[in-house]
């Protein structure tokens, strides 16, 4: 494993195991699963300032869209000039064309750490004790098609997770149709993309699927609240 990820996995391991021990008197055998949910919520809470920026950038993009279309039409023969003027337009609004994707990119390393945490048999030279924890009898380190079986007793836990992910994807896609989402081909991709979480969850360990579900639910909740807040100057 790449050295920086080794260190990050070690930190995540101590945080999740600490939360697991803290929650065990309240949640019993579900303590590790609940700890993952709490850990995920803490990560997303730390990213909240970037989420505010993302929401502001999204509203700015929607507001500037008519002007952007005019610039594209005006400089149809000069794409470089069009990009320069569109960039200047965004800068005048105090944002950029890329501000919306920042939080999503920052979550990828975190998801990678969680994935490695529940895939590695050892962390820091010691046995990964988190792999012994379960969710309704299904080990958190188990993966669906690779080890759980599609419809066995363990597979049913994964199917429940997939159902929740599908509902969250539907909610997110519905918000994309109503809210400040890109139009055209990019807009269609934006509406379909949330369902990609089902493909990811079918491959990654159950613990990483719990992280994915919690994070996507958080994102959907942010879209329903932050993105509808009137822009401030």
- Which outline best applies? elongated
Backbone CA Rg: 21 Å
Secondary-structure element pattern, one letter each: HHHHHEEEEHHHHH
Kindly report the spatial arrangement of strands forming the biggest sheet: 1-2
Biggest β-sheet description: 2 strands, antiparallel
* Relative strand content: under 5%
What is the helix tally?
10
- Please estimate the helix content: over 70%
Low-pLDDT runs: 229-233
What average pLDDT do the residues reach? Answer: 81
Structure description:
By secondary structure, this protein is mainly α. About 70% of the residues lie in helices and about 5% in strands. It has ten helices and four strands. The strands form two sheets. The protein has a two-stranded antiparallel ribbon. Helix 1 packs across helix 2, helix 7 (about 155-180) runs antiparallel to helix 8 (about 185-190) and helix 7 (about 155-180) runs antiparallel to helix 9 (about 195-205). The radius of gyration is 21 Å and the shape is elongated. The N and C termini lie far apart (about 45 Å).
Short recap of the structure:
By secondary structure, the chain is mainly α. It contains ten helices and four strands, in the order αααααββββααααα.
């Amino acid at each position: 494993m790449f050295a920086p990820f080794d260190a990050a996995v070690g930190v995540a391991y101590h945080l999740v195991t600490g939360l697991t021990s803290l929650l065990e008197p309240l949640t019993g055998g579900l303590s590790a699963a609940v700890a993952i949910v709490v850990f995920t919520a803490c990560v997303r809470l730390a990213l909240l300032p970037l989420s505010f920026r993302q929401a502001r950038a999204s509203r700015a993009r929607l507001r500037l869209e008519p002007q952007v279309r005019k610039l594209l039409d005006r400089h149809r023969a000069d794409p470089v000039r069009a990009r320069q003027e569109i960039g200047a337009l965004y800068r005048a609004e105090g944002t950029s064309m890329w501000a919306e994707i920042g939080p999503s990119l920052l979550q990828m390393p975190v998801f990678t750490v969680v994935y490695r945490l529940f895939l590695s048999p050892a962390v820091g030279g010691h046995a990964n004790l988190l792999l012994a924890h379960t969710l309704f009898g299904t080990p958190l380190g188990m993966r669906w098609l690779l080890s759980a079986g599609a419809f066995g007793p363990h597979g049913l836990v994964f199917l429940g997770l997939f159902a929740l992910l599908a509902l969250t994807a539907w909610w997110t896609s519905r918000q994309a149709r109503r809210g400040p989402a890109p139009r055209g081909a990019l807009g269609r991709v934006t509406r379909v993309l949330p369902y990609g979480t089902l493909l990811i969850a079918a491959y990654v360990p159950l613990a990483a699927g719990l992280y994915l579900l919690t994070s996507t639910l958080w994102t959907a909740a942010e879209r329903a609240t932050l993105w509808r807040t009137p822009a401030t100057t």
